[in-house]
Amino acid sequence: MLILAAVSQAVLFIWFLGCTVTYKCKRFTLVDGMGLKSAEFVMLCLYSAGVALFWLFPFGKWVLLGILAFWFAVQFLCHWRYTLFGASEAKLRGYNECFEGTLRIFPKSDTRLVPDLYHIVLHALILLNIFLCVFYR
C-alpha cells in the first residue's frame, strides 16, 4: 500500500502540473497551463505541502486528506455538477471555448457539459488518492 500511495501521489502531481505548464503532443493539447500566477498553481502548492506532511508526520495523512477532499469538492463544483445537473447556455459555451483545443474521449455537446480527457483523469486520480489516503495505515 505504501508504494501504491507514493506512485499515485507522484502521478497526480505530474498530471496536475499540466495545469501550470501546457502539455502538448504534436497537434493535440492535453491541457493548457495557466502559469504560476493562477489558482491551479496555488492548489499544486497545497497538494505538494500535503504530500510532504503525509510522509513526514503521522498527522500529515489527515492534512492531505483534507486537501484532497477540498480539491475534489472544488472540481465537482466547477465541472461535474454541470455534467450531472446541466449548465446554462453561457456556462456551456464558456466551458467549451476554454477547453476548445484539448483532447477528448467523448465529443463536446451543445446541451451538456462534457469534461475533456485531462479532467476525467485528474478527477479519477484525486479520488484514487483520497481512497489510498483513507485506507493508509
Characterization of this structure:
- This protein has 137 residues and is mostly helical.
- The chain has one domain (2-135).
- It is built from 5 helices and 2 strands; from the N terminus they run H-E-E-H-H-H-H.
- The protein has a two-stranded antiparallel ribbon.
- The model has no long low-confidence stretch (mean pLDDT 89).
The main pleated sheet reads as: 2 strands, antiparallel
Mean pLDDT, to the nearest integer, reads: 89
Question: How many strands in all?
Answer: 2
Spans where pLDDT lies below 50 across 5 or more residues: none
Number of domains: 1
Q: What is the first-to-last residue Cα distance?
A: 9 Å
Number of helices: 5
What structural category do the secondary elements indicate?
mainly alpha
- Topology as H/E string? HEEHHHH
As a percent range, the share of helical residues equals: 55-70%
Shape: globular
Widest sheet: strand ordering: 1-2
Report the sheet-strand fraction: 5-15%
The value of Rg in angstroms is 16 Å
What labels describe this entry?
137 residues; 5% strand; mainly alpha; two-stranded antiparallel sheet; single chain
